[in-house]
Fold this sequence. Notes:
This protein is mainly α. It is built from 16 helices and two strands. The chain is 64% helix and 1% strand. Residues 51-286 form the Fatty acid desaturase domain. Residues 311-341 are annotated as: Disordered.
Amino acid sequence: MTALRMRARDFLTDGELADVRQRVTWKGVALIAHAWALIIGAIALVAWWPNPLTYVFAVAVIGSRQLGLAILMHDGAHGCLSADEKTNLALSQWFCAYPVFAETRAYRRYHLQHHARTQQEDDPDLVLSAPFPITKLSYRRKFIRDITGQTGYQQRKAQLLNALGPKDWPWRQRAAHFREKLGPQCLVNAAMFAALAAAGVWWAYPLLWLVPLLTWMMVITRIRNIAEHAVVPDSSDPLRNTRTTHANVLERLFIAPYYVNYHLEHHLLFYVPCYNLPKVHRLLSASRHAGRMEVQPGYAAVLRLATTKPNRDDRPGQVVSSVRRAQSGAAVDANQANGGF
């Protein structure tokens, strides 16, 4: 199957395209600063007022900003954080990708194939959307694995083993391979731990960085993957093989940061910075294409669509198959920095 091809000028005028294509460095920096300000603020809140409620709140906020950093890394992979490529790559790598154990250039190579072959047989992200719809029981099991850290642990374990290379390699070769794959990420995370220790809150690194990374970020990464491409109406139509999901204030805070919910607009014009996607959405919504666009009113609505399979069909063989697909998707995410944006 081959997806329909549509040009940018099929959607917007030359003037509108020139406007939404503008990449402004200070706006990219501002979004990165916003993510880190919320992370630091959440850590400060727990340090100042430690109790179960502030801790759970901080984990949810920090996990959402870790996803936010991955989203901004994704913008960097598209060259959208800055018009200057060196600045774009530096911002994407050191302030977005490395802190969450990702890498922009490897992600870019993989991710562009997803854009070229969206929802087709050779789409590398198809494994993330193909199993849906599933049963509510199946989603509940996935949610439990995500929130308890099982999914995150498996992803990071796969990433670590991949970085170490085959066991039969000499240790020098394995060490060099590890430095190439995860060296900068470990360096940045060591610096983060040192900074927190110097501030007298060393415990914040395991409890307020690693725990959100392994739990809440996994929960909302799965929700994001489902919202973007699962149970779409038409895999060959670029207006219907991906989805935009309206997000309220709470959803933007805890689930869908930095305009990631405007995924249909991103696929149509993937060189547009994320902060211009709402403008693209308004233009498309006022165009002749509005009626064809796959848009849902919120993430709860998407999850209802994705869990419409009757529970009686959730037989053991299907569960095993679903788990294997999920594990395959986890490996993709671990190696390719949460692919599927």
